Amino acid sequence: MNHSEMNHSNMQHGSNPPMGHEGHNHAMMIADFKKRFYVVLTLTIPIMLLSTMIQHFMGVHWPFAGSQYILFALSTIVFFYGGWPFLKGLVDEVKSKNPGMMFLIGFAITVAYAYSVAIVFGLKGMDFFWELTTLILIMLLGHWIEMKSVAGASKELELLVQLMPADAHMVMPDMVHDVKTDTLKENDIILVKPGEKVAADGIILEGESYLNESMLTGESKPVQKVKGDKVIAGAINGNGSIKITVSHAAKDSYLSQVVKLVDDAQKSKSNTQLLADTAAKWLTIIALVTGVATFLYWYLTGQSLAFAMERMVTVIVICCPHALGLAVPLVVAKSTALSAKNGLLIKNRTAFENARKITTIVFDKTGTLTVGKFEVSKIVSLQQGISENEVIRLASALEQQSEHPIATGILQKVKDLSIPIPATENFKAITGKGVEATVEGKKILVVSSGYLKENNLPIPEGFTANETETVVFVIVNNQLVGYIALSDEIRPESASAIKTLKENNIKSILLTGDNAKVAKSVSETLGMDSFIAEVLPHQKLEKIKELQSKGEFVAMTGDGVNDAPALAIADIGIAVGSGSDIAAETAGIVLVNSNPKDIVSLILFGKATYRKMIQNLIWATGYNVIALPLAAGILYKQGILLSPAAGAVLMTVSTVVVAINASFLKVKK
Questions:
Q1: Do both 466 and 405 map to the same domain?
Q2: β-bridge partners, 362
Q3: What is the dihedral of CA 61, 66, 69, 73, to 10 degrees?
Q4: d(CA 52, CA 72)
């Protein structure tokens, strides 16, 4: 749709929802249309009563000197005051060489007004004043309703904005002082009392409580938070008091990033939106061409100038590409904001709408299908003189530099055993295979079985690890000294998520750097279609390409860090478990939780959103196919003729239907 179309309202279709200053402007515009509507409604009554045609309908005759001049004066007020948004829109669209809806309405009312004025000052025929007035009245009502619908579709985003409390209790050395949330900065300490909203992203310094993060993550159950846990601004505190160390200023908070993300996604255009825009542009051209052709046909076949004019005005009004222009943006505004409230963050609109095409989902294992919380299940020493505690002590020195779930598991075990962790030098990550560093003058490596194979190091005799264990090997000065086995339990939601995918004819494949035994066990337990194990990050990309070459439409789910290349090459990249980090640049969609059920929700919601768009497009186009010939007078000989006001009513109804249909969109969890 051409974007000058709603210049009168600054609410270009497909634009961002009203927020802040913009939201204030939007509310003012709604109030302006409402006021203009009521003024025109008041003037419409005397105009109708003074119109000869209405008097004729009512079977009365009230002629008095100068009545037509009073009619002219009142209609002039309606034309310039009530019609002002449309006249201004017409000028703006002509200036931008982008004629659209405002141009059509402005043109229609100008033709009706100019012709009627000519009648008052001597031209033979019947004036159009009452038609002009009712046309403007209905157009104002339609715009008022439509703008309220647009504001309604954006309300979810406004609710997200309102989640951020205005004030925070800042903890000073001698007192607690109330400050504005937007003045908080890194390392400030704030107090959150029971039942209050968390004012900033941060880490709990003191206290514990259950936090309700459902408005941010879609996770309905309150989450227990203790000292050292991260908290998100906007979450609602339960019944415990907590002190939080602020991680960053309000503008960098998770919530602010979500709002910006939703805002950007609502502004961005998908292929469906571009299709609707093109259709709306063509409809504008069809309206003008058909309008002029209708006028010429009736006038040249002997009908009166008034009749030919009325047909032209009705055709142009009924053809306004209003419903078509709103068909997609209203669904976009609704779906993007709803997604954000359910922990599905859409960065790329086309990727989201393409979710309906997915034939294969490739899952990274750790933290998506499994809990991602590794626990050490055994420590084995392979060298005399090196105890099991020494094996894990050396490994922990390297792992303290890493954020990988395996590292967290090893560090937790060291903490449980009360072993002090030594310092490291020359720390270096070996991509996809492990880490190396110097500890107490020795070269230490903590690596996967893939590294042993690649460097022709034999796997030790008597090596045992069960099917669900992940193993890392510890090498000291090129000698294999031991290994640590860790296990990671499968998420309870994973099985039902895979089952739902199967029901929707979507294949699920496990792609992991872990060993084949673990991959096979997880894959079979969950009933997945297949698994690919022991792959390095760069090989993940090759595997995705391989699936695509077989004609599969592939979605890749990963943690957005070491899976970045694979996420980028997949048809749809879904970054999961990014928690409060939305910086998963390569993914088109970010899931706040790592819950595999959210991936299913995302696909089903993507399908539902696309369905709504197509329903709206079919309605908006189909209505024109039927209404246009009626407006042109195709059934005139059968006694069926639409007036300009009836055309305006139909156009308004079609817009309202599109708005109501969009409002029924829901995320099914």
A1: yes
A2: 509, 556
A3: -90
A4: 13
What CA–CA distance (Å, rounded) separates 71 from 46? 8
Indicate whether 158 pLDDT > 80.
no
Q: 617 falls in which pLDDT band (50, 70, 90)?
A: confident
Strands 589-591 and 167-171, by their bridges, are unpaired
**Which tokens go with 169?**
């209790």
**Is 364 labeled as catalytic in the residue annotation?**
yes
d(CA 461, CA 390): 20
Residue 601 lies in a domain: no
What average pLDDT does range 293-303 have in this prediction? 92
Cβ atoms within 10 Å, residue 66? 9
Task: Write the CB contacts of 191 (distance below 8 Å, at least 6 apart in sequence).
Answer: 169, 170, 171, 176, 241, 242, 243, 244
Task: Return the CATH number at 365.
Answer: 3.40.50.1000
Domain boundary among 454, 487, 520: 487
Sign of CA dihedral 199, 204, 206, 212: positive
Tell me: do 239 and 102 sit in the same domain.
no
Report the C-alpha gap between 336 and 656 in whole angstroms: 21
For the chain, the distance separating the N- and C-terminal CA atoms, rounded to the nearest angstrom, is 33
pLDDT in tens, 538-557: 788 889 999 999 999 999 98
- pTM, whole model, 2 decimals? 0.65
- Please check whether residues 496 and 576 belong to one and the same domain: yes
458 lies in some domain? yes
Portion of the chain with pLDDT greater than 70, in percent: 85
What is the rounded CA–CA span in Å between residue 16 and residue 603? 24
Catalytic-labelled residue, pool 32, 364, 488, 598: 364
In three-state secondary structure terms, 624 is helix
> Phi/psi of residue 262, each to 5°?
-65, -45
CATH code at 217? 2.70.150.10
Please give the distance of CA 538 from its chain centroid, rounded to a whole number: 30
Among 216, 231, 252, the domain boundary falls at 252
Give the tens place of pLDDT for each residue, 211-260: 887 666 656 678 889 899 888 888 888 888 999 999 988 777 777 777 77
Looking at residue 490, the DSSP 8-state letter turns out to be: B
Q: In total, how many domains does the chain have?
A: 4
Indicate the SS3 state at residue 29: helix
Q: Of 539, 381, 377, whose CA–CA distance to 469 is shortest?
A: 377
Looking at the structure, tell me whether residues 483 and 494 fall in a common domain.
Answer: no
What is the domain extent for residue 34?
A: 3-157+261-337+608-663
552 in the same domain as 634 = no
Q: How far is CA 413 from CA 72, 463, 487, 544, 661, in A?
A: 89, 21, 13, 36, 55
Same domain, 311 and 322: yes
Q: Do 446 and 585 have their domain in common?
A: no
Classify residue 600: in a domain, yes or no.
no
Residue 668 within a domain: no
